[in-house]
Design brief:
Length: about 325
């Protein structure tokens, strides 16, 4: 635990009561500017065929990062488009096939990226994710396994793959793309919240455990954005509706009728907000990055929940001589 003191810890914060009174909830938000220079940084991003992943890959590469833009199902047009863009703009961007539900592809893809980077990856952005919308009762085990494999087990696989290299370097950063629905719950959204709640919990635990290794973990919580996630969600939801059993669907006729017909076109938020938030987090000094970062120009219903849980964690464990320094290091940035 010799490296824990690199963080700014409150002097003499041994008593739980005093910790509760002095905890600083919410580190300074990252600031993005087009002048940020990421030359020398290696960044691996999952789910780069569209949306947040694609935008982040382009943005970071244009600002000098060595970007590994990963996606499943190669060859595909989106991969060729990225390769052509990188060639035309002379960007240090490499497209690698990774399906986050595959142990083999994760292992091989990360190994390829590390070989090109000449060592451990500096930043992992776990962006790949899916949604399957329906009442929970209608979610069969095929849908349940697929969404947990993608949204929870996938980020876990990726983290385990990059962490040995990061620990060897003595530094690193993991950015998890969660959701407002990782802290609040909307009916009829299937297991999406369940997976994002799990991702949030796993990520917070990782943040504590990686303090001694100088590896930061941050969770981005976007609101609603008009990305291709709606198209993919409709595909998965329609397939589920097609095979769903009447014994389960008959209790929710209105909700089942809407499965596979969602429309995200009315959302006007700019998905580049999330790409810029990723860049801002990378630019922040190690040890100062916030654990959770809500990103939305509109309502952020998870903020009070984030504040309460940070206080509860610190009040409960902050005074422990064993894990207290880890908890305080994360929540007192």
């Amino acid at each position: 635990m010799s490296n824990i003191n690199r963080r700014t810890l409150l002097a003499g914060a041994a008593a739980t009561a005093s910790l509760a009174a002095t905890i600083r909830v919410g580190a300074a938000e990252p600031v993005y500017t087009s002048q940020l220079d990421f030359k020398g940084k290696s960044v691996l991003i999952t789910g780069c065929s569209s949306g947040f992943g694609r935008l982040a890959a382009e943005l970071l590469a244009r600002q000098g990062a060595k970007v590994f833009a990963t996606m499943r199902g190669l060859p595909r047009p989106e991969a060729e488009q990225l390769r052509i863009m990188a060639l035309n703009e002379r960007l240090d961007l490499h497209v690698i096939e990774i399906d986050v539900t595959s142990d083999e592809q994760v292992k091989e893809g990360v190994a390829e990226a590390e070989m090109i980077a000449g060592g451990g990856i500096d930043v992992l952005v776990n962006n790949a994710g899916i949604g399957i919308t329906s009442p929970v009762e209608v979610q069969d085990m095929e849908a349940t396994r697929l969404i947990f494999e993608t949204n929870v087990f996938g980020p876990h696989r990726m983290a385990r793959a990059v962490l040995p290299g990061m620990r060897k370097k003595g530094a690193g950063q993991i950015i998890q793309i969660s959701s407002q629905l990782g802290r609040v719950i909307s009916p009829w959204s299937g297991h999406y919240s369940a997976t994002k709640f799990a991702l949030e919990a796993m990520s917070e635990q990782l943040a504590y455990e990686l303090v001694p290794h100088r590896i930061d973990v941050s969770i981005i919580e976007p609101g609603g954005y008009p990305t291709k996630v709606w198209v993919n969600r409709n595909t998965y939801s329609a397939a589920l509706k097609e095979r769903a059993e009447a014994v389960h669907t008959e209790g929710y006729p209105q909700q089942v009728a809407r499965m596979g017909t969602e429309d995200g076109s009315g959302r006007s938020n700019d998905p580049a907000d999330v790409a810029k938030a990723i860049a801002g987090l990378i630019a922040q000094p190690p040890g100062t990055r916030p654990l959770r970062l809500p990103v939305s120009p509109g309502n952020k219903p998870q903020v009070p929940i984030n504040e309460v849980t940070a206080r509860v964690q610190t009040e409960w464990l902050g005074g422990s001589p064993v894990v207290g320094p880890l908890v305080r290091a994360v929540h007192q940035r």
